[in-house]
Sequence to fold (402 residues):
Amino acid sequence: MASKEEEDFADLPHTVGHLYTRSLLVLRTQIDNDGAIIAANDFDITRFARDTYSYMWPRDGALVAAALIEAGYSELTRRFFNFCQRIIGDGGYLLHKYNPDGSLASSWLPWYRDGRKELPIQEDETALVLWALWRHFQRFRDVEFIKPLFRTLIVSAGDWLAEYRDDGGLSLPSWDLWEERRGVLAWTIGATCAGLAAAAEFGDAFGERELAAKYRTAKEEIMAAADARLWVPAEARFVRMINRRDDGGWDPDLAIDASLMGLWYFGMYASDDPRIVSTMQAVRDRLWVKTDVGGVARYENDQYHQVSQDTENVPGNPWFICTLWLAQWYIAMAKSLEDLKPVLEILSWAAEHALPSGVMAEQVHPYTKAPLSVSPLTWSHATLVLTVREYVARRTAIVAGT
Fold:
């Protein structure tokens, strides 16, 4: 599989090229033949969490699918999207996670809270499947594959994303990608806008102009509401989450979170929008681990597998995906080869902190760089693949003067 496509790694170190190839192999080991993309198959985590990661999270699957699409593996991504079509509910949304056979998996997200019924969902899990599917169609143009998915997956999910909003146009609360807090989240808003944009593009492609207009209108209304609510002038940055009070006002969560990258990565804002620049600079400055190990933590005072109380210097353990997200922003911002040097440093960091086998964990110890949590984490390897491909494409464009 890893040698299916001939790769040009430009000026990347051999260690990074080797890790890219190994990552493709690791990704294949985590994909069921019927399409489920599994988050991780490491059993050691049961000693900490009393459960494994051996489930299919639609969000993780969509991001892994995006990496496989960029690498040219359409046969695997077709199976994944067919799997999503089979499991999507009548309401048009995907639930928390699934077993590889498509049955509903165990979940800690409640159906009832404070005596009220609520959807136990992460809205990004539905939205990012549409985002990834549009990337698939852009790359492979396989109309005959997409056609059976149009009504059952695309329109069903697009309608739900357009309707799951409050009277001000903003998406309703859901759980965050870290599965720790519920609210209106920056990452989720970015993903939702991307999902609606994808649904609109599919509507145009299939001649459904009214549907396309509906999805674009919903996206624009969400963006307008996010402009007003998620940007906090006093902080000179976006915030990761807001929650509505009983009096109708909004409470912002001011903790810096690496997932703020979702506001630009999925296309909601330009990477060089001054508000995004100030937000990403805050992520870099506040979440970089100030030890010899380095890397980017998930968010301030992250207590998951926490090993240090020195949160000024170690806001949390460094995660591969969060560190690579910073590299992806540098790539998006780069206008010269000099601008790409920090990307080379981060990619080399990833290669240095992988195991000798090329396996990348979820996170690493901030002092010893030992792997923490599951190894391999499928998402870590997918993000490495995406970052390498984005780096090579941006470098090629800079050299060509385009």
Remarks:
- The radius of gyration is 20 Å.
